[in-house]
Specification:
Length: 290
Amino acid sequence: MKNIRKVVIPVAGWGTRSLPATKNIPKEMLPIYNKPVIQYVVEEAQRAKIEDVIFVTNRDKSVIEDHFDYNLQLESVLERAGKLDKLSEVRAVAEMVNIMSVRQKKQLGLGHAVLCARELVRDTPFAVMVGDDLMFGGVPAIGQLIEVAMAEKMPVIGVMEVPFEKISRYGIIDGEEISPGIFRVRSMVEKPKRENAPSRLAIVGRYVLTPDIFGYLDKVTPGHGGEIQLTDAMQAMAQNRGIMAVRMSGMRFDAGDWAEFLTANIYFALQDEELRYELLALLKNFVQFQ
């Protein structure tokens, strides 16, 4: 298998779970501590040595691409003010990776979003990272998948164990554990009833796919709302050529869930030594007041 150097990041969705905050601001640009959500995702890709980021976007989300471009006016202001640390930070964002984009003119599901990137991916294996799933730990989550994909020469999906009461929110796999944390996928089902789920291993927004996925996506029967589900295509791929799954290590925050979004803000604020103790004191006072 060729080295994984491209990642597809779908960002065309409406972000309805985060309304009204996302009425005029893409959910991917909501701040977690001092960075927008999408920057954490791109930084994860960068740490895994991915060079090309393909945003699957829509007409109202050019601000996402702009964030990873130079802002010469802002840079000039920072330079004149002598704020060289901030100047270095904003320039570094523009120099992180190569940015490309393609329009998803109708939001017809994750599978459709991946299909939109076909001409930019061409015949190379590639990663897919869902733009509101944040994952943190020692080894980048997508890097854990790339390592297994390269070793096994197989497509790989990332999974994490979820609480029983949340099973119906996810695609769930049935797999044979062939080594610690690595599974050969037998089947997968999208959002099953909790009592019918084959496991608690949920697919959580990280994938390494081979270009033949596009052929499987072409054959998927659209479901509710005309959506093309990536899970359906991967299920067919698992039956025909096989797919691996990796139980990813590290922490995960779903930025579309308000409780997890707010927890992520606190988590990252606590990493700032200048802010940590003041924040802890305020939180302690708030809890006592409640």
